[in-house]
Every structure is written in structure tokens, then in C-alpha cells.
Amino acid sequence: MAFPAMISAKALGAMPQFVLEVAGEKRLAKALDAADLPFQFIDERSGYISEHSLATFMHESARAAGQQNIGLLWAPFLTVADYGAWGQYVLTAPNLHAALTRASSVMPFHSSTDRAWLETQGDTSRYLYAFGLRSHEAYADIGFSAIGVFLSIFRAYLGPSWSPSAVLLDFPKVPNAQDTEDTFQCPVIWNATQLGVVFHSSCLSVPASHPASNSIPTTVQDIARERLGGPPKTFRNQVAEIIRLQLSSHEVSIETVARSVDLGVRTLQRKLETEGTRFRDIVNEVCIERAAELLALRSETISGIATALGYETANNFSRAFKNARGMSPTEFRKSQDVRS
Questions:
Q1: Taking Cα atoms as reference points, which of 325, 263, 264 lies closest to residue 292?
Q2: In angstroms, what CA-CA distances link 209 with 49, 90, 204?
Q3: 17, 23, 37, 51: which has the fewest Cβ within 10 Å?
Q4: DSSP SS3 for 261
């Protein structure tokens, strides 16, 4: 069964802040709402979101900011340094070849479908990228953004003024295409078979310009811990991840979850049925898991937790929690006190 493509929320990078500064808070909120993403993504980009939501946010951001080719505007400001442990692992490689190899190897922690790979033939090398949702109307902006992120790796080793031999774009020329070469400071090949960067192979051996740090190096295991082992592997877990995000905005519904993964409600229900579960069951499980986390915070009242999780009354919440955990919220909180 084909599952919707998921990507780390860190892929948003500086995009929300860019829209906030250019278009204002109300238009940013509108773009996030259209993509079914919580407003917290201005400051916090944790967990995984659907690639459909990421692409929709880009499309709506362009409308909100009144900007054509918005991906070109923010591409110079996007960097893997904003990707947490993932970016740290890549940027602390000993040379550019190792950095690109690392980026390719840990891509499964970044996205469930995206892939990146290095091709070398003589003096010419290409670093290529495949995005899992090419059919979206915002794909050109996604492509521009991806090139901007990858160039941040090259320039971390080759210097901020370095430019590639060419940029490959696997989509038709966009309006105002002249801005593209100005942005990437190199020739641009449109309708290429792959999206990527072309450069001289000698660049691969260039060592890191930054001195080795005395701190403990970032490892693949650090990425796995930060990103919970990678994107959700089942459709049920993908739905659960989206529900966790929506809990923060108190607007969990099957309609918004279905829209996030670009499916109809009935199709979503059928996919869950094939995995032996229902939407309501997943909502209950996610709410109870979150409730257990909140109960560990002594500052949170039981009634406040009930309200935050969307229960009509504290009694309804207490019954649901006891049915799931075999003890009331009060009893659960006491048990946590004993353990601590």
C-alpha cells in the first residue's frame, strides 16, 4: 500500500519567519491554517508533517506574500544548519564528499520518500535530489528551496561566494526566470531529468574550513533520537503524528487529517480499516498518551488537561483515561510521584 509522503517539520526552516516578516502575522496564520499546520511552527519545528502540507504551505505563502517564485526569495536563507542533529551531522563531516555522503545516508530520517545521491564522471559531479510529491502545484518552489538547502552544504566547505557549474531543475521555465540565475549565481538548465547541482569533482576533496570541535561529535544515533527513529512507517502512525500536531491547536478532526495527506475522508477510513483500526481509536490513544505526559507536570490541573485535550468535562476525561490506563488521572499522578 502506498502511504502519503512524510517529511521532518524542520524542512520548513526559516520559511515561516520569512512569511511573518514579509506578509505579517495574519497572513502567516492563514497560510499555516490552509496547510493544516499549527501556528507553533513559527518557533518550533518538531515531529513530521505530510509533504502535501509542506507544499501547500509554500503555495499559500506565495499568495499571502504576493510573491511569484517565493522559493527563489527564501532559497539563499535556507540551510541544513536549521535541521537540528541532521544538519549538525552533515556539516561536521571532514570534507565535502563525506558531507554529501552523510546527507544521502541519513535522508530516510528526514523524509519517508525523498532521496539524494552523488554521481561522479571524470571531472564532473552532480548531487541529485528526488522529492516525493512532484505533482503539487508548488513543486517549482520546492525545487528552488531544495537547491538552496543543498548549496548551504557546499558553501560550508567551499566558502559563501562559491557557485556551482550549473543548477538542474526538473520542471519547465517559470515566469521571470531571469531571477533564477541571479539567485543561484550560475547557469540554470530547465526541464532537466533530475533536480540537482553540477560542480567540478575536485571540490569533493576540500576539507572542512571550520576547526575540529572539542565537543562530542554528532552521530546517526543522535539523529534517530531527535527524530524518533525517522518518519512514521505505517499509515496509522502517520495519522497519529498529524493528530499530535493538531492537538496543539485544539482542532482535531478527520476532515483536517484527510486534507493534510491529500485524501478523501472515506479513503482515509478505508486505509485505516486495512490496518485494523479506526480514526477515533487513534485520537483516543494520542489524547491519552498526551494526558499521561501532562499529568507528570504538577503545574497542570486535571480539569485544565481535560480542556486542553478537547474533553467536554473533567469527568469525561477521567472516565476515558481510566478505561485506557486502568486508573484515574489522580491515581496515575500519584503513581508517578512514587516512581520519582
A1: 325
A2: 34, 14, 13
A3: 17
A4: coil
**SS3 state of residue 199:** strand
What H or E segment, with its residue span, contains residue 48? strand 48-50
Q: Kindly report, residue by residue over 116-156, the tens digit of the pLDDT.
A: 999 999 999 999 999 988 989 999 999 999 999 999 999 99
Domains of the chain: 68-224 (no CATH), 235-339 (1.10.10.60)
Q: Is 298 exposed, middle or buried (0-12, 13-18, 19+ CB in 10 A)?
A: exposed
pTM given for the model: 0.85
What is the DSSP-derived secondary structure letter of residue 2? P
Is residue 335 within 8 A of residue 295, CB to CB? The reply is no
Instruction: Write out 104-150 in H/E/C secondary structure.
Output: HHCHHHHECCCEEEEEEECCEEEEEEECCCCCCCCHHHHHHHHHHHH
- Tens-digit pLDDT profile for residues 276-294: 999 999 999 999 998 998 8
Rounded to 5°, angle at Cα 195 from 163 and 120: 70
